[in-house]
Amino acid sequence: MNRLIDTLCRLFETLLVILLALMVILVFGNVVLRYALNSGIAVSEEVSRWLFVWMVFLGAVVALKEHGHLGTDMLVSRLPLVGKKVFAVVAHVMMLYATWLLFSGSWDQVVINREVLAPVSGASMALFYGSGLVFAGCSALLLLMQLWLIVSGTATEADLSISQESEELAQLEALHLDPNQTIKKQ
């Protein structure tokens, strides 16, 4: 199962690169066409917005898998292992509930808008709201797997942390762990 999730996240990462490249091409091409030729691509703005929404949701799945969301563990890091596990279970249950809310809301929007067409492209608006369904399904799977690791007792202490501190704090902690490094002035 881990290999399947790793493959899915690599696919999402590749898709993120493609979506970003398409957004850049559409927006930059539209700007050039407007200034140089006094014309433009009508569908560019709408498609770019859709691509951005899909990028956000797919990127959030990858960040969830890699524990890349920002958070703070000031209280939890000071607890014993049992306390960390309890807080991790509570956090995962709350995230699963939020995921359920997102899924049910996205499902309702997909059903309501399946026959509604986008003003410029004419595509079904259900494709736009489907990004929430994909995110909710993938994140629920990841959260359930992480919750199972915690409840079954196979989770490591690093698995109990569901977020990371800011990059600056992580670099500072790395310096404290390695006394041979020096701080570089920027």
Explain what the structure shows:
It is a single chain. The chain has 186 residues and is mostly helical. Helices cover 69% and strands 0% of the residues. The mean pLDDT is 87.
Residue share in helix: 55-70%
Report the structural category: mainly alpha
Q: What is the total tally of β strands? A: 0
H/E order of the elements? HHHHH
Overall morphology: globular
Largest sheet properties: none
DSSP helical segment count:
5
What would you report as the Rg, rounded to the nearest angstrom? 21 Å
The rounded distance between the terminal residues' Cα atoms is: 43 Å
Give a quick set of tags describing it.
186 residues; mainly alpha; 5 helices; 69% helix; globular
What can be said about this structure in brief?
By secondary structure, this protein is mainly α.
Write the layout of secondary structure elements.
Layout: H1 2-37, H2 44-65, H3 81-113, H4 126-152, H5 167-177
